[in-house]
Amino acid sequence: MSAVPENAPDHCPGTDSDAAGKADACQGCPNQSICSVLPKGPDPAVEEIKQKLKNVKHKVLVLSGKGGVGKSTFTAHLAHALGAHENSQIGVLDVDICGPSLPRIMGVDGETVHQSGSGWSPVYVTDNVSMMSVGFLLGSPEDAVIWRGAKKSGLIKQFLRDVDWEDLDFLVVDTPPGTSDEHLSLVQFLDGAGIDGAIIVTTPQEVALADVRKEISFCRKVSLPVVGVVENMGDFICPHCHKSSTIFPPTSGGAVKMAESQGVNFLGTLPLDPRIARCCDEGKNFIEELDGTPAVVAFKDIVNKIVDFCVTAKKNREQETGESMMEI
Ligand code: SF4
């Protein structure tokens, strides 16, 4: 992978260089704390993680340029939708270390992680959807996590290497907004195991789309394929009269136009439906609760496109490596 992050200064020596974190260019760089401790040269954890995740067929990251666009809601319900398929096994990894909201959204806040002989056991949300989050390791949901890059990187390594994920069809990873230590760590640690791609969640306003362009640029710099862009909080469709109203006007053409100009897939728009927020507050699955609504119809269509992309990505990996993986 290319190893010059989007937010690095001009003369960045590269995050895998021996000088990473120590070069003159690194002084004042926001990534210095993590670059100075990340192992240089081949990190043995990359191979360990590759072995640990060898029975995980698909790995996808969920990104957003900004906070508050519904990324964690999307992640949780992507897992629920994938878990609705018969015999599927889905894992969710929450690496939004400073703002872990997935336990609440998935209705498992207050659960704790158990240690077994083969590692940390993830928390089961349903019979076939399991999850790991820093939220399970905190004494209270109100506890603030104030960690520097090195500690975050260490926890992400543990989540990937030491959690007993077993055989999964999909591992869906929720990341913090923007491009930060967590993203770099994920891309580096999953270098051997392979990532199918990144899904980028946004809202229609230009202020959110501007940050999505940076997110796409990050993906390109670290050679992370972009599955596509999801536009959340599209038009509000009244559940009573079914009339549509635009709440957040797409002043610059919205995510469709932005995706077209950036050469990435546009996966679809999710309408604004306040019942989704209520389901998330109550830890309920809106795909089941609001079945048949425009939001759920649009969501399922987006999930089908993501599955198609990942199946194709897996086939391409098999052809490149000559390895044959089990079919989904
Ligand atoms: S700290 Fe890391 S990202 Fe920043 S300039 Fe140095 S090597 Fe590049």
Automatic annotation (TrEMBL):
Subcellular location: Cytoplasm
Primary localization: cytoplasm
InterPro entries named in the record: Mrp-like_CS, Mrp/NBP35_ATP-bd, NUBP1/Nbp35, P-loop_NTPase, YlxH/NBP35
Binding site for [4Fe-4S] cluster 1: C12, C26, C29, C35
UniProt subunit comment: Heterotetramer of 2 NUBP1 and 2 NUBP2 chains.
Membership in a protein family: Belongs to the Mrp/NBP35 ATP-binding proteins family. NUBP1/NBP35 subfamily.
Record-given protein name: Cytosolic Fe-S cluster assembly factor NUBP1 homolog
Organism field: Aplysia californica
